[in-house]
Amino acid sequence: EHKIDLEIIKPLVGNFFVIHSKDDSSIPYKQGVEIAKDLNAELLTFKNRNHFSKPKNASVILKVLKKELKF
Description:
Elements: H1 6-9, E1 17-21, H2 29-39, E2 42-46, H3 58-69
Parallel strand pairs: 1-2
């Protein structure tokens, strides 16, 4: 079970998407799948991106945000 209080988060946002890498060393991929399901969110799955905390992933995150938020 994840420690995020989804009932607090849900009313704050219209649509959710979860960005997760299968090799995430901080949060198991299975947990990302569960969070996406609990939020009724689109799950955007990547490989070899770890926890997206490295600077090399900034361009990937920006590209996803531009696409998903349509700007």
